[in-house]
Amino acid sequence: MTRDGRTSGSVSVSLASGMRELVGAEVLVVDKDPKVQKGMTQLLSSASLHVSCEADPEAALALAQRKFFSVAIVDLDTPVPSAGLDTIARLKEISPTTMVVMLTPRKAFDESVRAIRAGAVDIVWKSPEQVEHLLDRVMDAAGRSVGKREVDSILREVRDTYDDFLKRFMDAERRALDAAGGVSVVGVDEVRVLVVAPDAVLHGALVSAAASGFSFDLAHSGGEALDRCSTVPYQIAIVSETLPDLPGSMVVRSIRTQSRETLVLRFTGPGPGGRVELVETSRAIPVVDPFTAPQQLADRLDELAQAFRAKSRERRYAQAFRERHYDFLRRFVELKLKIDRQLGGSGG
To answer: Are residues 17 and 143 in the same domain?
Structure first.
């Protein structure tokens, strides 16, 4: 009977089960001494672990980039005294979930502290009397590595399942709203377009070429454009990259901040090297490239108006969903952040 009340038989079964889980676990040994490599291979292979030995830390790190190791045993003095500390730190950058055990030929407090800070989970004195202890520490580290990877795998699956559930939930809510009459998208019977450019060339061309259902305003400067956007709800804003007072990129950002639903385009040209891009939060989508004639943009206005309506409708769906399920969304976001932090801390 053991101290925790289990019989010796149950302990043996538990240990055997743990050993089965670790069969085939990969162990990387970084040591310049061929005798140590041979001894490590024999010791760890007897525990059904797969062993890879490298005398060169650079070769070991390259191997760790191609293959996952549950445990790495790093000699403090390979290839030169204290060089193992750098090897440990770089190895943890490559493979954060690998458990690192440092071998040291001397008992040095400062080096031990630095090894722990670099990412080592254990430090074993390099001595024949420590062989059994080393095997115990490697088996323990391998078990922790396997368990950590299993937990991270489950967390990733939970995160992906939650994301899929939220998407399906929102789609179901959208269908329910559509069945009840949908959401209203107001104020788009006439699409209001603001052209921000130092001259009236593009504005005049769009007014002449555009189909009915559009109205156009012209702002000659960035300041004038921002003043107009603060009082008039524009569906589309077309901003030149070259303005007399403000950088075009600043005006684009400001308009997007003032009106989340406005489609904001920036342009150079028309002419050689001209282009038109739709600016989104994390990217710019080419609309006309190359942009050589105003008619090219006029031909895309109907498509841009449809894109605005779709964007506006999606925002209203999202707003309705938030209003109906605020508490659920709050809990969902909190849980997802916890999962992301856990996975981020383990390199997931």
So the answer is: yes
- Tokens standing for 192? 């209001």
- Summarize pLDDT for 299-322 with one digit per residue, the tens: 898 888 888 777 777 777 777 788
Are residues 23 and 95 part of one domain? yes
- Clarify whether residues 142 and 13 are in a common domain: yes
Tokens matching residue 223: 């300041």
- Please say whether the beta carbons of 33 and 84 come within 8 A: no
pLDDT value for 291: 95
Judge whether 31 lies within some domain. yes
- Beta-carbon contacts of 340 under 8 Å, excluding residues fewer than 6 positions away, are 159
- List, as one string, the DSSP characters of 266-282: EEE-SSTT-EEEEE-SS
What would the pLDDT profile of 213-268 be if each residue is shown by its tens digit? 899 999 999 999 999 999 998 989 999 999 999 999 999 999 999 888 889 999 99
- Tally Cβ neighbours within 10 Å of residue 217: 16
Do residue 114 and residue 17 come from a single domain? yes
CATH code of 19's domain: 3.40.50.2300
- Residue 267 sits in which domain range? 191-300
Q: DSSP character for 129?
A: G
* Comparison of pLDDT for 73 and 337, the residue scoring more: 73
Q: If you ran DSSP here, which 8-state letter would residue 13 be given?
A: H
Which three-class secondary structure string do you get for 134-169?
HHHHHHHHHHHHHHHHHHHHHHHHHHHHHHHHHHHH
Structure tokens given for 297? 């943009």
Helix (H) or strand (E) holding 121: strand 120-125
When pLDDT is cut at 50, 70 and 90, the band that residue 6 belongs to is very low
- 146 and 197 co-located in one domain: no
Between residues 63 and 307, the one the model is more confident about: 63
| 317 assigned to some structural domain | no
Furthest-apart CA pair in the chain: how many Å?
Answer: 94
Is residue 176 assigned to a domain? no
The candidate with the shortest Cα–Cα distance to 224, out of 249, 203, 195, is 195
Helix (H) or strand (E) holding 74: strand 71-75
Polymer length of the chain = 348
Q: How far apart are CA 323 and CA 329, in angstroms?
A: 10
Q: How far apart are CA 261 and CA 278, in angstroms?
A: 13
